[in-house]
Design brief:
The complex is a heterodimer of chains A (about 280) and B (about 300). Chain A is mostly helical and about 280 residues long. Chain A is built from twelve helices and no strands. Helix content of chain A is about 75%, strand content about 0%. Chain B is mainly α and about 300 residues long. In chain B, about 40% of the residues are buried. The chains are: A mainly alpha (about 280), B mainly alpha (about 300).
Chain lengths: ~280, ~300
């Protein structure tokens, strides 16, 4: 009756926190299936519009595939923006953030859990968008190297969610601006990262600057690996893109760790953790 | 009791109340939209999104056509996309007020007990988005004319037709926003996505960025029953008449016929919005969703 529950500490606590925070994201999706409809239906509307624009101007069919793949990747970007970067702002609004800070766990584990859960849940939506694109617009893929494709996807996602974790710590200091900034970071990023066209269309240095967003190179490399004309329209070689993505992974994860510690202290000092400026 | 008093109020009182509600809501909406940042940052925020959106289409078009901006298809796409900014701005500006007040600020219940007209209040909340949307439209079109050879000549434009079509269209969009806002009153889940979904669907079906002929046959009728299709055509014709008429979709209709269709469909949607609001308002009170915070 009075037996104490085993207490997790150290890395066990870290892993348990990661799993606990990812649980509601993965399980929540299964319980509330209507989210699937919205997360697939809305991007499909945009994808379809861009597909018909390409058809109206007589573009080669591979461009339709580029749009479908870009549309699938928007799911990840939206997830990083709204469910990673702004998440701590939502938590603050609902009063959960103070509980996270008070609990005997690491905020880094909370963020990793959010990233893991978001990644798994969003991957299902992205797959659904690609399958729908294949069905509706007869898009076909010819994979050059499954190994490279897997490496590009995993590295791009690690770097992207690392970036999301880093931004989440920056958003700790924001209030109402968080919503506006996330809202602003949609179309300009779709443009800069070439979600609907090959990034090679930009001058080299503009494309290189856009590569700071991991999806830019991730998308370019994946297009090179799955479309017959992909390699000719690629920005730089896939192996270079893999190397850069690896560097971005390390940089963003380290930056997230450092910034989170700093911002948490700053937010506590300035009393921003429990404020609600509407 | 309050409802009975409102229903039996003299007509001039109702108009006065309605106008006051609209005016104050417009001011409130402007404060909410703009006071989170300094004016310069707010200006940048207001124009970057639509310019980026237009730039995506410009890049797509220029890659495939080798930047052949002389083709009539380009101004068709560019102007359609520019004026479509109003659709998202006005429609979601009105309907989003319900979500903002109910879920975020938790003030919708206070609006209901205040001596105001709720439909006029919701319509007023869309004014701020209309103003920022207008700024975005002007900047997008100016950029197109200056840098992308959009063949717009102010001396040749049919300004009376333009302003008449613009006015009817904005009223029509506001009524569609009221329609969506009314439905939002009853929704607990996914209320945030309604306006976005409708705006996205209309972008696809109304021929905003490509002629309707590109769509499969079975989808086209959706575009033909949407007033936005005719509204965009009239705006294009009033600014770049010859080019807009080069596409077969609505080439068989004169400007007057298009105006007639636009007015007819706008009236139909406006009437529908009024009835839907009454229905949803009644049921929202019955179900207690006016003061509900779902945290969804």
């Amino acid at each position: 009756m009075n037996e104490r529950l085993p207490k997790a500490t150290g890395w066990r606590l870290f892993v348990k926190t990661v799993l606990a925070r990812s649980y509601p994201r993965i399980i929540g999706q299964q319980r509330e299936k209507s989210w699937m409809f919205w997360d697939i239906f809305l991007p499909m509307l945009g994808v379809s519009s861009y597909v018909f624009v390409y058809r109206a101007i007589g573009a080669p069919e591979d461009y339709v595939g580029f749009v479908v793949m870009g549309g699938a990747m928007t799911a990840f970007w939206m997830n990083v923006l709204w469910s990673m970067s702004s998440q701590l702002y939502w938590e603050k609004e609902q009063g959960n953030l103070a509980l996270y800070i008070m609990a005997p766990n690491q905020m880094m584990a909370i963020l990793l859990g959010m990233a893991l859960g978001g990644l798994v849940a969003t991957a299902l939506r992205a797959i659904a968008i690609i399958l729908l694109g294949m069905l509706l617009f007869k898009v076909s893929f010819v994979v050059v190297s499954f190994l490279q494709l897997l490496a590009v996807f995993l590295l791009a996602m690690t770097a992207l969610y690392g970036m999301g974790m880093m931004m989440a710590s920056l958003f700790l200091l924001l209030s109402r601006e968080a919503w506006h900034i996330s809202n602003l970071a949609q179309e300009p990023i779709y443009l800069a990262s070439g979600f609907y066209f090959p990034i090679k269309s930009f001058p080299f240095w503009i494309a290189a600057a856009a590569a700071i967003i991991p999806l830019t190179l991730g998308l370019d490399a994946m297009r090179q690996l799955v479309f017959p004309t992909g390699a000719t329209l690629g920005f730089i070689s896939v192996s270079v893109e893999i190397t850069v993505l690896f560097v971005l992974c390390v940089v963003f994860l380290l930056a997230a760790k450092l910034l989170l510690g700093h911002m948490e202290k700053l937010a506590i000092r300035e009393g921003r953790l429990t404020e609600s400026r509407r | 009791m309050a409802v009975t008093q409102t229903a039996t109020a003299p007509a001039n009182t109702r108009w006065t109340e309605g106008w006051r509600s609209f005016r104050m809501a417009a001011w409130l909406g402007w404060q909410i939209e703009s006071n989170w940042a300094d004016p310069f940052l707010f200006f940048i925020y207001s124009v970057v999104k639509p310019l980026a959106s237009a730039s995506i289409l410009v890049v797509m078009y220029s890659i495939i056509t080798n930047a052949n901006f002389e083709n009539p298809l380009f101004p068709y796409i560019y102007l359609g996309n520019a004026f479509y900014i109003y659709v998202g701005a006005v429609m979601s500006g009105v309907s989003w007020a319900v979500i903002d007040d109910r879920e975020h600020y938790k003030t919708l219940k206070y609006m209901y007990v205040a001596p105001i007209r709720i439909p006029a209040y919701l319509l007023g909340r869309g004014v701020a988005r209309f103003l920022t949307g207008s700024l975005s439209v002007i900047i997008t079109i100016t950029a197109g004319v200056l840098f992308l050879k959009v063949p717009f000549n102010p001396l040749e434009a049919n300004w009376p037709l333009f302003f008449l079509a613009l006015f009817i269209g904005v009223v029509m969009l506001a009524m569609m926003g009221l329609l969506l806002g009314s439905i939002t009153l009853l929704l607990v889940h996914h209320s945030w996505g309604i306006a976005e979904a409708v705006a996205g669907a209309l972008y696809l079906f109304s021929g905003a960025i490509f002629p309707l002929e590109v769509l499969p046959n079975w989808i086209r009728p959706v575009g033909y029953i949407m007033p936005i299709t005719y509204w965009l055509e009239l705006l294009r014709r009033s600014l770049v008449g010859d080019i807009a008429q080069a596409f077969p979709t609505l080439a068989g209709f004169s400007n007057l016929q298009l105006l007639g269709i636009l007015v007819g469909l706008s009236l139909a949607f406006g009437t529908l919005a009024v009835f839907v609001f009454r229905y949803c308002d009644y049921h929202a009170r019955e179900r207690g969703t006016i003061d509900m915070v779902s945290n969804y």
